[in-house]
Amino acid sequence: MALNRDPKRRIRVEFTMSGKRKCPFADTSPQQLKTHITMKQAARMNDDLMKQMMERTKTLLLDGQQRFWTENKENQRPVEVSVTSHAMPQCHTCNSNSPSKVCAHCSRYFCTPCSRYCDGCGEVFCTLCSVLNYDQANDRSFCLSCAP
Known about the structure:
This protein has 148 residues and is an alpha+beta fold.
């Protein structure tokens, strides 16, 4: 604090402050952020923990499957199926009774609205065995083996 007197006899007080002290680490120190590490990330670092997690998941899946089948066996009723000698195959995509083609990939029957021509190999495929591609102005369909 310094005192200066004006010619008009007023006292003017000036405070001189130096700025904040600069950080000695500058930009070389990494940011210290709080991060949450999940069990899966921790297990990737430890093989034993990963094996325990995989075994637990496997047993849960198998127990769930076992429970599902035992519950459904008790609730099932016998189903009567009538088979005719001229049973016409159904489209496996939309279940219509007018299939006209056989898929080159899965060998199942499908109707004309459910058919797609592969732009890669030119064969006919059902909608489940083909993929639409929207990269260009026109939609293109590809079979599963020609898909980009």
